Description:
The structure holds two protein chains of two kinds. By secondary structure, chain A is α+β, with helices and mostly antiparallel strands. Chain A contains three helices and five strands, in the order ααβββββα. Chain A has a five-stranded antiparallel β-sheet. By secondary structure, chain B is an alpha+beta fold. In chain B, 22% of the residues lie in helices and 23% in strands. Chain B has helices spanning 123-135, 156-161, 168-176, 181-197, 210-217; strands spanning 5-6, 14-25, 28-38, 42-46, 50-54, 59-65, 75-80, 111-117. Classes of the chains: A alpha+beta, B alpha+beta. Strand 4 of chain A pairs antiparallel with strand 6 (59-65) of chain B, so a sheet runs across the interface.
Amino acid sequence: xxxxxxxxxxxxxxxxxxxxxxxxxxxxxxxxxxxxxxxxxxxxxxxxxxxxxxxxxxxxxxxxxxxxxxxxxxxxxxxxxxxxxxxxxxxxxxxxxxxxxxxxxxxxxxxxxxxxxxxxxxx
Amino acid sequence: xxxxxxxxxxxxxxxxxxxxxxxxxxxxxxxxxxxxxxxxxxxxxxxxxxxxxxxxxxxxxxxxxxxxxxxxxxxxxxxxxxxxxxxxxxxxxxxxxxxxxxxxxxxxxxxxxxxxxxxxxxxxxxxxxxxxxxxxxxxxxxxxxxxxxxxxxxxxxxxxxxxxxxxxxxxxxxxxxxxxxxxxxxxxxxxxxxxxxxxxxxxxxxxxxxxxxxxxxxxxxxxxxxxxxxxxxxxxxxx
Lengths: 123, 239
């Protein structure tokens, strides 16, 4: 549920359904990969590029061999489906994520004070 | 093992360096060496200086495997979207070959690498380092998400407020500090491209202040120089 620190990633997420995946961090579900393998595990992170990190994974490769993986990172390009758990309210999840993004974006309020670059710039 | 080549280890951007790590391709051990998880690529070199590199865009997934039933040693598993011939010599032995066309596999070529460190406790750090490096190489083929910044933080605030105060500067700064040099250069380049393509009514939050908006209306060329604190210190800001 953490919102990305990157303006670019927040904008990408806001404009795509990746925002839904970012709202189901912590859920255990199945990710179908492009090569027909599947990964069942707990979603720990999804970024704007749909790279997915899963924990405690039961991985079934395309030959059907099953193995356990502690941590799995699959690139967005190789994701075919992410199963959304039935108990997830999709609309509410998307709305909540959008709210979180707006909270970050409008931090400090729209009309309050000068919002230019702070003089102390950290790199 | 003819794809092994001699090359110097990466000089910069190394997130994790793991010595005493065995490399295995498919079912074949390649020996023991050092794994370099660098921002530019993943490299492995054995003690004689021979090794190979993998480009992150070719890596489909990576994982930590502690399932000894599946493989007898705890390791970092890396699946690559390319073919590596273990016997025949190839034209591009540097392992950047993306020969995704002709392969005897079903749909696409897959190569499975395993990196078995002698220090098992390093696996999580190796995994995390790879996640970070992968995030630096987003898929260039991604259809929709890349350039659609309309309606995002870049123009919403400024549009509503006319000129001037752009609340997302705060988050821009915050975001900037989390970007690597490469990510920042990419961001600046994209912003420059977008800034040049927007109309004079628009202002992209985080990129321009009201000062350059006036410049826009004067018909002056947009300056795509990177945003630097103090750059617009002489701007007249309406409080």
